Amino acid sequence: MSGVHRGQQRALYDARRDTEIPAHGLRLVVVRPADLDADGRGRLRRSEEADLAALRKLLARESDEDRVTDAFRAWLLGEGWTPVEPTDRWTDLEAVRGEERLICEAKGRTKEKGIDADIAYGQLLRRMTSQDARIRYALVVPSSSVKAVERVPAHVRELLRIDVYEVTDDNGVRPLPA
């Protein structure tokens, strides 16, 4: 009826949800079939016990990574980005602004800052499946991990189109210089 293909309409609704819910100070939690007890095709098995356990885990804020991701998502919205469904299910956050796309890997506070920074860079490298210059990658870390992620020289990060963002203890976001 709207003249828009069903897939496009769903994408518009998802983008509106991803923008409007956080804009009202609410935390958006998207539950995918893969998060619940589902078969390989995404069909739910409807196992109440397993599904409740999965939902408790999704809704719990067990790690600082959730705080970092939520703060960065809110900052992106303020900068005119629209969070979208990630093209890779392991991506922490993906957003678009006009023709630009940002694929993000977030890390929270950790005891092994250097190792976790190296792992995060590796995760971003695996997601670099397109040569499209409009796609950039972001490593989003708490203040305590900035020195570890800066071990990769700025000129290398620029060649790889990786931007680094610091999330402070009071949930402020600061892009680090390239």
Q: How do the strands and helices of this protein lay out in sequence?
A:
Layout: H1 6-23, H2 48-59, H3 64-78, E1 82-84, E2 93-97, E3 100-106, H4 113-126, E4 135-142, H5 146-149, H6 154-159, E5 162-167, E6 173-175
Parallel strand pairs: 3-4, 4-5
Antiparallel strand pairs: 1-2, 2-3, 5-6
Helix count from the secondary structure assignment:
6
Biggest pleated-sheet summary: 6 strands, mixed
Q: What's the SSE pattern?
A: HHHEEEHEHHEE
Which whole number gives the mean pLDDT?
Answer: 89
Explain what this protein looks like in three dimensions.
Helix content is 39%, strand content 18%. The protein has 178 residues and is of the alpha/beta class. The longest helix has 18 residues, at 6-23. The termini are far apart. 21% of the residues are buried. The mean pLDDT is 89.
In short:
This protein has 178 residues and is an alpha/beta fold.
Give me some keywords for this one.
6-stranded mixed β-sheet; alpha/beta; 178 residues
